[in-house]
Amino acid sequence: MLRITTSLCASCQKMRLLLPPSASLTSHSKREENQRTVDSLYELSVDIRKVRKLKGWVLSEKTAYVAETAGLLRDMGADTAVIAHILETHPEAVLCRPEDVKAQRDLWGSVCSGQRALLSIIEKFPASFFTVSHHSNQRANILYLQSLRLNKKIISKLMASAPQSFSRPVESNQEVIHTLRETYLDLGGDEGNLRVWLQKLLSQNPYILLRPAETWRDSLGFLRERGFTTEELLSLVSSLRASISELQPEAMRQVLAYVQDALSCSEDELKRVVIRCPAVLYYSLATLAGRFQGLMDAGASVEQVKESPNVLELTTQIVLYRIQKLASYGYDVRSGSLDVIVGTKKDFEMSYAKLNLRQQRALFNPVAPLRC
User: Which InterPro entries match (predicted)?
Assistant: First the structure.
């Protein structure tokens, strides 16, 4: 058998793109490729080289349903480009039996507003949709979440972003939801607002159902021991939402000790800092120390940080940039409040624009209109 050399000239490489995969070069592998699968994917304009690089084993499987999978996607409204993108991103899709994909389409369609919405999810999360091995668990979990009267968009987002939570038995999710409900009500939450509160938690972090129920109890138990009232705890849970399930008591203990020492504050002052800037609870000790030192090096005082703790949410680079930007317009943050530099980029731009327009106002006429 003739051996084809792998060093091709530029013109040959261009010609290679025009040839079918059977005529192109392939690297030697342990398993021989299924030529029928390769040709079928090529006919759908799928980049075979990309599939070989990422999931080459798929091309060696004896049984594949390329035409059937493409047909199902086409029935949902997918064009050639979309089909090619899906199969390039998740080539394992062609290994799913057509009847399983149809059942999955009907199941996911029950929580989508239409075929277009379902196709959009498949295009973004093909691996989630084509995970058909836990169909019964998926159905049970969907029915359970629907019984809670959760929004369809929330359920479909959970299925797409965190498919593991739907692949496991429904009892696991019921336990987590039960713990969340107890937590909300124990903290003084209103039963009538429970559904809305729960939807906010799930939309912020789809992986919340995968967190053990004990993590919620441990985190809240620690904060309760530190003297936070029921009302304050509810405020923290509402602010942190799903992030509170990721907090570890020991890590929070170290962070609170550092903040209290760095800001020289009492227990009550420390609680006020945490209520105003809940993010300090989940930042690492190294991150907080670096940002606090950056503020000190920039000329800010401990009292300023204590009064505007939200400044700790900003990286040192952002803080320095905003301080220099304001200094160019004559505003010295060392003699004022740090509130002017906190917030999102949009918030800062608004503050910056106010200072800029204030400089442009004519000094001799205090009621002169602002210049554009």
Answer: MTERF, MTERF_sf
* Neighbour-count burial of 66, counting CB atoms closer than 10 A to its CB (0-12 exposed, 13-18 middle, 19+ buried): buried
Long-range interactions of 330-334: CB distance < 8 A, separation 24+ = 330/355, 330/359, 331/355, 333/298, 333/299, 333/300, 333/304, 334/299, 334/300, 334/301, 334/304
HEC secondary structure over 1-70: CCCCCCCCCHHHHHHHHHCCHHHCCCCCCCCCCCHHHHHHHHHCCCCHHHHHHHHHHHHHCCCCCHHHHH
Distances (CA, A) of 190 to 41, 64, 157, 198, 240: 55, 53, 25, 12, 18
Q: What is the DSSP letter of 94?
A: G
- The amino acid present at 185, given as its one-letter code, is L
pLDDT tens for 266-325 read 999 999 999 999 989 989 999 999 999 999 998 899 999 999 999 999 999 999 999 888
Say if CB 59 and CB 22 are below 8 A apart.
no
Q: Residue 242's pLDDT is what? A: 61
For 361, which DSSP code? S
Distance separating alpha carbons of residues 112 and 119, to the nearest angstrom: 10
Nearest C-alpha neighbor of 110 from the set 138, 70, 137, 133? 138
